[in-house]
Design goal:
This protein is an alpha+beta fold. The longest helix is centred in the N-terminal third of the chain and has 37 residues.
Length: 137
C-alpha cells in the first residue's frame, strides 16, 4: 500500500512540475513577444508566431519564416497590435495560463496604465519547436 501511495504522490508532483515548466515557457514567450513588438524587432518575433497559411505541411506546425516577405509582413501586423497595447501602457502583467486542449493554451495579459487595465489574451499552440503564438485578442 505504501508503494502505491508513493507512486501516486510521485506522479502528482511530476505532473505539477511539468505544468509549471510549460506555464513558465508560455509566460516567457509572451514577454518576449511584447518586448520584441515594442522594439519593432519583427524578425525575432516571427519565429515565436505560428505559420497559418496555405502550405498544409507547415500550417499550425512551424513558426513564420522571417526571410519570407509575406510572413514577415504578417509578423509585423501581429507585433503592431501588441506594440500598440504596450505603447499606451505603463507596464503589463502576465496572468494565468489556461490549457484549452493537449496542444492549445491561452494566457491572459493586462496592459496597465494607472488604474486602467486593458485585457488581452494570447493563444499558443504547442509544437515540436515549443509554444508559438496563434492569436491575439
Amino acid at each position: 500500500m505504501k508503494k502505491i501511495s508513493f507512486a501516486i504522490l510521485f506522479l502528482f508532483f511530476a505532473f505539477l512540475i511539468n505544468v509549471n515548466a510549460q506555464d513558465k515557457e508560455i509566460t516567457a514567450a509572451s514577454k518576449s513577444l511584447i518586448d520584441l513588438s515594442g522594439s519593432k524587432n519583427y524578425e525575432k518575433a516571427a519565429v515565436l508566431i505560428i505559420y497559418q497559411g496555405d502550405d498544409k505541411d507547415r500550417n499550425n506546425k512551424v513558426s513564420l519564416d522571417p526571410k519570407n516577405v509575406n510572413e514577415l509582413k504578417y509578423a509585423k501586423k501581429v507585433c503592431s497590435k501588441i506594440g500598440a497595447m504596450k505603447a499606451i501602457s505603463e507596464t503589463y502583467e502576465v496572468g494565468n495560463v489556461e490549457k484549452i486542449s493537449d496542444t492549445e493554451y491561452k494566457v491572459n495579459l493586462y496592459f496597465v496604465n494607472g488604474a486602467q487595465k486593458l485585457p488581452a489574451t494570447f493563444s499558443f499552440l504547442k509544437t515540436d519547436k515549443g509554444y508559438l503564438l496563434q492569436e491575439v485578442n
